[in-house]
Amino acid sequence: MNKPFILLLVLLATLSGYSQPKPSPADTTYVLKLLKKGESFERKKVNVALNYYRKAYDFSKKTNYTKGYFESMRLLAYTLNNLGRHEEASKVAQAAVQKAKQDTSKRNLGLSYFAVANTALYAGNFEQAIPNYQKAAQYMRLIGHLANVAVVNQNLGYIFGRQHMYDQAIEYYKRALAYDSTDKEDRRSAAVDYFSIGNILDDQEKVAESKKYYLKALDNIDPENDLDFMVNVYGNIGSQYTREAQYDSALYYQRKAVQISRELGNPRHELHTLMMLAQTYNRMGKHGQATQLLDESYAIASENQVGLDEFRNIYAEYAIATESLGNHKAAVKWLNQYIDTNDSLNNQQTKELLQEYEVKLKEAESRQKLAEKQQYIDRLQLANQRQNFWILLATLVGLGVISGLLFAYLYTRQRRRAADNALLAAQRERELAVVQSELQGQQKERLRISKEMHDDLGASLTAIGLLSEVAKSRMGAATTPEIEKISSISAEMVTAMNEIIWSLNNKNDSLNGLIAYTRSYASEFIDNTTLSLKTEVDELPYEVSMRGTDRRNVFLTVKEALNNVVKHADATEVRLRIRPEADHLSIDVCDNGQGFIPKEGIGTRNGLTNMRSRMADVGGNCEISSSARGTCLKITYPYPTVPEIKIMQMEYSE
C-alpha cells in the first residue's frame, strides 16, 4: 500500500468523525465505538489508532465514565509506548492507579498497575517494572484472568533476558507458551512466545535454533492485522539467514520487512530494515546496491534524529561499501565519522557504567551491614548454645563420672571430625576457585586481546590502507614503489590480523566454527582469482570444542594449499571438500592443474613440510597425491567424539 493511499484513508477517517453528531455525556456507546475503530487501525496505522484512543480517553474522563476511562487508558498507554513516548504513557498510567485506588475495583487496579509496569519496561526501568507486574498479577489471579498472568510471565522473561539470565528467561517464556498454546483463537500470543524464545536463543548465538522459533512465530501471525509484529519477525529471520550465508533467503525476508515497514509508515522500522538489507548486500559483495540503501537509511536517520548507535552502524557500512567500490576518499570520511561516533558512545557507556557501579556499591554496603548484624545474632545464639551445653554437661557429670567422661570423649571426637571435614572442604573449595579463576582469566585475556586488536590495530591498519590508496590516487602515474608496498603490506596485515583475531576469540572454539570460517575464506579468496570453486561442506549436528591453536593450524594448512593452487597449479578449477567423520575431520583440496613430482617441491615451492608439520602438531596428518590430471591434498584432524552440552510489548487483553 503506497503512502498517498494511506494519507487518504487517514483523511477519510478524520472527516467521518466530524460528520457524526456531537455525542451526549450519557452516550457511553460513543467511547466503545472509538476504541473499536482504534483497534482496527492499531496494527496497520498506529497514528490513526492513537487519535481514536485519545478521543475516547478525554471523553471518558470528562463524563466520568469509569469503564471507558480504564479501557481507553490501557490502549492509549500501550500505543504511546509503541511510539516511544514513554513519559506521556507514564503520566496516563500513574493517574489511572490513583483513580483505581479510589474506585477499589480489582479489575481496574490490575489494568492500571499493568500499564505502569509496561511503561517502566519500555523505558528500561526494570526495578520499577517488577513490583508493578507482581501487583498486577495479584489482582489478575483474584479475578481469574489467567491469560494476562501469562502476559506477565512473558514480560518477566524479557527482563531476565535483558539481564543475561537466559535460563530463567526461557523458563518464564515457556510458562506463558504452555497456556497460550491451548487457546486456538489467540494465535498471536503463542507467536509472541515463540518470538521471545527465539530472541533469547539468538542472544546465546544459537542461530539455527532461534531461526526455528522465529519461523514458528511467523506461522502464528495474522498477516492481515499484525503487520507491526511481522516486520520484527521477518527482519530477525532475514538476519539469521545472513549469518548462515544463505543470502537468497535473507534477501527475501528482509525485503518483506522493508515493504511492510513502509506500509506502516513507521520510520524507525524502515531504518532498521533498510540497514539489515544493506548489510546483507555488503556481505554479498554488491556494494553499489548497499550504498543506495544506506543513502535512504541516512536520510531517514537524519530526519528522525535517531541515536548515535544507528548512525555508527550506517557509517561502518558506508566505509565498507565505498572502500570496496574504490572510492577511498569517501571511505576515509565515513571511517572517521564511525571512529568519532564510536568514541562518543564509549564515553556515554562509561558514564552509565560508573553510575551503575555507584548504585551497586551502595547496595553492597547495605548487604554488608545486614551481614554484620546477622553475625552478631549468630554469636549470641552460639554463646547461648554453649551455655546450655555446659549446664547439660554439669548435670551429666553429677549423674556419674564414667558417663561424663564418655560423653566428653565422644563430643571431642565429633568436633575434631567436623573441623577436619570443614578444613578439607574449605581447601577443596579454594583449589576449585583458583582453577576457575585461572580459566576465566585466560578466556577474558583472549577476548581482551582479540577486541583490542580489532578495535585499535584493525582500525589503524584499515586507515593506513585507505590513506595509502588516497595517496596513490592523488599521485597518479607518479606513485612510488614505496606507496604501493605500503598499500600491499597493510592489506596483508589486515587479513593476517583478522585470522589471528578469529583464532583468539574463544567464541569460535568449535569444529563447526572452523568449518564455516574455512568455507567463507575459500569462497572469498577464490573469488579474487580466475579459478572456479566447487565446495562440498558438511557440519556436525552438535558442537565439538577445539583449541584456538588447533583451529589456526588446520586453517593455515588449508590456506597454504589454496595459495599453492593459485600460484603453481596452472588450474582452472579447485574443489574444497570438508566432511566431519565419526572421530575425525577430513578436508580435501584438489585442482585440475598440471601436477608435479612431490619430491621436487617439498619444503620449497609448495610448503609441504610446513603443512605436514602443522598437522603433526595437532595430532593429524597431511597427504598429497599428484598426477598430470591435477593435485589433491588430504588433511585429517582427529577430534573428541563427545559433544558439549531476543522484547515484545504485550497489551492487556480481555
Quickly list its features:
single chain, 654 residues, mainly alpha, 5-stranded mixed beta sheet, disordered N terminus, disordered C terminus
Terminal-residue CA separation: 31 Å
Largest sheet data: 5 strands, mixed
Compute the CA-based radius of gyration: 33 Å
| Topology pattern, helix = H, strand = E | HHHHHHHHHHHHHHHHHHHHEHEEHHEE
Shape: flat
The structure class reads: mainly alpha
**Helical segment count:** 23
Low-confidence stretches: 1-22, 600-605, 644-654
Q: How many strand segments?
A: 5
Strand percent estimate: 5-15%
The largest sheet has its strands arranged as: 1-2-3-5-4
**Kindly state the mean pLDDT as a whole number?**
79
Tell me the helix content. over 70%
Topology:
Layout: H1 3-19, H2 29-41, H3 46-63, H4 66-82, H5 86-103, H6 106-123, H7 126-142, H8 146-162, H9 166-180, H10 187-203, H11 207-219, H12 227-243, H13 247-264, H14 267-284, H15 287-304, H16 308-324, H17 328-399, H18 401-475, H19 481-504, H20 511-527, E1 532-537, H21 548-569, E2 573-580, E3 584-591, H22 598-601, H23 608-617, E4 621-627, E5 630-638
Parallel strand pairs: 1-2
Antiparallel strand pairs: 2-3, 3-5, 4-5
Helix pairs in contact: 2-3, 2-4, 3-4, 4-5, 4-6, 5-6, 6-7, 7-8, 8-9, 8-10, 9-10, 10-11, 11-12, 12-13, 12-14, 13-14, 14-15, 14-16, 15-16, 16-17, 17-18, 18-19, 19-21, 20-21, 21-23
